[in-house]
């Protein structure tokens, strides 16, 4: 991965990163918002300490550990990536409550249009803010968007010390198994 100077990372602030999406995905993962490394590279979850890619593999969603630069392969596995808020910041706490609410509205419209089987929001705090659901916990939610079920996953940021890669992978795997079971049942 390329190394960036502080000035190069700062220049990526507010930059938009294209979604990795397609119609009818099995799972659409939804981050909080792009970090500066993601914005600088154009690849989701690009910061070296972020555990998204290792956890995606450990949980069985991908057959091998993928690099952020390989994100374009995700739709071939029925997976995609978007964000609650599109603009890049150094930290999620730079986002306003209104940005989260507007992000929730835009995300709802995107999910209704793309119709993934599952929307997986990575970060319970972001989910609570975007959907005004202060009591939400990690796991499946009662909320449904059209025919899309919603699951909240732990935030894979290296700053989220409450979850290890192993415990995070267990929660991601719970979603994977549930999604696969649902798909077989619908046949």
UniProtKB/TrEMBL annotation:
Protein name, UniProt field: G/U mismatch-specific DNA glycosylase
Pfam families, alphabetized: UDG (PF03167)
Lineage of the species this protein comes from: Bacteria, Bacillati, Actinomycetota, Actinomycetes, Kitasatosporales
A GO term for molecular function: pyrimidine-specific mismatch base pair DNA N-glycosylase activity
Organism name: Streptomyces cyaneochromogenes
Domain Uracil-DNA glycosylase-like: 18-179
GO BP term, pick one: epigenetic regulation of gene expression
Keywords: Activator, Chromatin regulator, DNA damage, DNA repair, Hydrolase, Isopeptide bond, Transcription, Transcription regulation, Ubl conjugation
Domain of life where this protein originates: Bacteria
PANTHER family for the chain: G/T AND G/U MISMATCH-SPECIFIC DNA GLYCOSYLASE, G_T MISMATCH-SPECIFIC THYMINE DNA GLYCOSYLASE
